[in-house]
Amino acid sequence: MTEKFTSTPTPLQSIVAGAAAGGIESLTTYPTEYVKTRKQLLGASSPSPLRLLITAVRDHGLGVLYTGAGAFCVSNASKSGIRFLTFDAIRSKLPRDHKTGKPTNSSNMLAGVAAGVAESITVVTPGESIKTKIVEDRAGPRLFKSTGDALRWMASNQGIRGFYRGVVPVTMKQASNALVRFTSYHAMFDLIEPPLKDAGKGSLAASIAGASAGIVTVYATMPFDTVKTKMQSVSTGSGKQGTLHVLTSIIRESGVAGLWKGTTPRLVRLSVSGAISFSIYQNVLDFMRNSTDFQSKTAIL
Asked: At what angle do helices 69-91 and 105-119 cross, to 10 degrees?
């Protein structure tokens, strides 16, 4: 987010701008999410991301790359709205630098952690659990004909715990993800925005800072994502499946490097999504703030 406006967005502005950013970026980058999930589920025997992509399209057509996209995109739009709402609300209550008037790095970090925890518990864990099962099923037994089938299967066979399997690594991932992403984004934005603005290219600052933040976030949080995917797969529906058990199993099977399995497609997705989401968020927010009609209708929200 730019510092063009010093006032905190209203809750409705944060939710609408955040949801728009999350929905658009997830639709744009979902094929890389599909490849990442398949690679993690296959474990040590998985081929390269490119070979996996080619094989999937050859065997099932281009449509397979959007398997599970419905649950993921709805989840991503929802979590993005909640993420920005929580971040903006919490950060507005935290200290600012007395010289610049901008939130301090520690304020960005604390607000980021709060945003990550909020989105994990409310949206991300159940949404990604559904997506993981659909992606795994499409490449295997074909138990589900639709997202509705997956929901019914999970409800009848696993109950509420099925939707929240992997909640610990997911929450750890989302909290660290938001902490790293927001902190690195604002640090990078504050660094590059002044010279870009002087060069007449200030509008690029959000995209560049967002892409950079996405790259940093991938390497910092990938182990949590890998453990989460393993815990949410259909094949781990019974028996031991605790976070520590899954973590040690991955290391035993693939070594420590196995915790970064699927990094390449996730790196592509988060760098692109970072550029898209922060840019869209800021543009939608600016539009709402500049719209007299919108402001008058939402002034009390």
From this structure: 140
Question: In the chain, what is the straight-line distance between the N-terminal and C-terminal CA atoms, in Å?
Answer: 21
Q: Which two tokens stand for residue 143?
A: 């138990």
> Is the distance from CB of 206 to CB of 282 less than 8 angstroms?
yes
Burial class (CB in 10 A: 0-12, 13-18, 19+), 223: buried
pTM above 0.85, yes or no: no
**What dihedral angle (degrees, nearest 10) is formed by the CA atoms of 33, 212, 104, 11?**
-40
42-54 tens-digit pLDDT: 877 778 888 888 9
| Boundaries of domain holding 31 | 11-298
Per-position DSSP letters for 160-183, written without gaps between them: HHHHTTTHHHHHHHHHHHHHHHHH
Where do we find the tokens 């939402």?
A: 298
Beta bridge partners of 96: 103
Lookup: tokens for 152 = 């019914």
Q: Can you give the CATH number for the domain in which 214 is found?
A: 1.50.40.10
Angle made by CA atoms 215, 2, 224, in degrees to the nearest 5: 30
Based on the structure, what is the number of domains in the chain?
A: 1
116, 127 Cβ separation under 8 angstroms: no
Cα 89 to Cα 12, 23, 207, 245, 257, distances in angstroms: 11, 21, 23, 37, 38
The answer as to whether 5 is a domain residue is: no
Classify 96 as helix, strand or coil.
strand
**Spatial distance between the Cα atoms of 126 and 170, rounded to a whole number of angstroms:** 10
Q: Which residues contact 100 (CB under 8 A, 6 or more apart)?
A: none
Taking only the tens place, the pLDDT of each residue in 214-247 is 999 988 888 888 888 888 775 655 555 678 888 9
Q: Is residue 3 part of a domain?
A: no
The two structure tokens encoding residue 251: 């290391």
